[in-house]
Amino acid sequence: MTKKKASSGGTFRKFIVAMVIILIIALGFTGLNYYLKYFGPNVTGQREYLYIHTGATFNDVFDTIKKDGIVKDSTTFYWSAQNMNYINRVKPGRYRLHEGMSNRKLINMLASGTQEPVTLSFHNLRLKEQFAGFVSKKIEPDSTAILRLLDSDAYVKQFGFTTDDVYTMFLPNTYQLYWNTSPEKFFKRMYANYQKFWTPERRQKAVNINLSPVQVSILASIVDGEALHDDEMPVIAGLYLNRLKKGMKLESDPTIIFAENDFSIHRVLTRYLSINSPYNTYLHTGLPPGPIMMPSVNAVNAVLDYQKNDYIYMCAKEDFSGYHNFATNLAEHRVNAHKYQEALNQRNIKR
């Protein structure tokens, strides 16, 4: 009898031990499975960035992740996203991916909206259309959305611009901004930079030459169009300010090229000078209604810190160095112009 009790007691103990071992193994497996789902490496590194568009749903994000092979196991990503309530916390943006990221780290980044900003650098873009196209390659809004604001009288008026001169608001520089920046936020960011650039000191310099900041930038765009070398900009600025003070037409060739909308022209012929355009400074006195290109900061500063001189004529040098011959009278200018025209003829440059 005693032996039977001892035997049954030993069997029970063995059963309990076996159950404990099974439970430990099950818990260990569950823990490992939990760890792999949340903390195990899952991002493949096939894509450098994940772009989530404004208005995207979780299903949109999940479809992109599967289509682009962003994770090894999309099922565990989906499970993790549900458990971390990411489904209701989708935020648009441009997110930097790192190979081996876990589901938990990836989802935390996406849910918190921790995106990497884009770097936007622009300069010397001639037309608003070019500018809108260039910017749209860097941020989410398309060129049409940006152009719509550039061409909206009501919208640009709030910043103190017209659709003709609003281009002067965009100062060439390098900017950091988020990929999903809206067109409106982009404009406000550019305007804030414009306001920061136009310090009281710069504004006073503009007053001293009887120009507004916008007019300074319009003149700077012409200086930029004329000058191949920055060190010549203050001289050219001084010349054009002389013509403005005297009430003379600016007679700037780059404005004719802009009016013709043909930037392949190398030789402005007499027949171009009668084009019917407010940008034709051979026909109209004073500044054109807007810039002929995005003026550089150097050109703006050259107008504000212009060289005081008596020049009223200029012509490209016949050595094609990019510099100019300057003159204080028409007779001297005609000599310089003749030399340049002869040089053009020798090189068979007809237009």
Q: What does the secondary structure layout of this molecule look like, with pairings?
A:
Layout: H1 2-38, E1 49-52, H2 58-67, H3 74-83, E2 93-96, H4 103-112, E3 118-122, H5 128-136, H6 143-150, H7 153-157, E4 173-177, H8 183-197, H9 200-208, H10 213-226, H11 233-246, H12 253-260, H13 297-304, E5 313-316, E6 324-327, H14 330-346
Antiparallel strand pairs: 1-2, 3-4, 5-6
Helix pairs in contact: 5-6, 10-11, 10-13, 11-13
Account of the protein in words:
With 351 residues, the chain is mostly helical. The chain has three domains: 49-112, Dna Ligase, domain 1; 118-197, no CATH class; 200-346, no CATH class. The protein has 14 helices and six strands. It has helices at 2-38, 58-67, 74-83, 103-112, 128-136, 143-150, 153-157, 183-197, 200-208, 213-226, 233-246, 253-260, 297-304, 330-346, and strands at residues 49-52, 93-96, 118-122, 173-177, 313-316, 324-327. The protein has a two-stranded antiparallel ribbon. Strands 3-4 form a two-stranded antiparallel sheet. β5 and β6 (324-327) form a beta hairpin. The mean pLDDT is 89.
Features:
351 residues, 7% strand, 6 strands, Dna Ligase, domain 1, two-stranded antiparallel sheet, mainly alpha, two-stranded antiparallel ribbon
Write a brief caption for the model.
This protein is mostly helical. Helix content is 50%, strand content 7%.
Helix content: 40-55%
Our count of domains comes out at 3
Rg for CA atoms: 34 Å
Principal-axes geometry comes out as elongated
How are helices and strands ordered from N to C?
HEHHEHEHHHEHHHHHHEEH
Q: What's the end-to-end separation, in Å?
A: 122 Å
As laid out across the biggest beta sheet, the strand order is 1-2
> Runs with pLDDT <50, length 5+?
none
Say how many strands there are: 6
Strand content: 5-15%
Structural class: mainly alpha
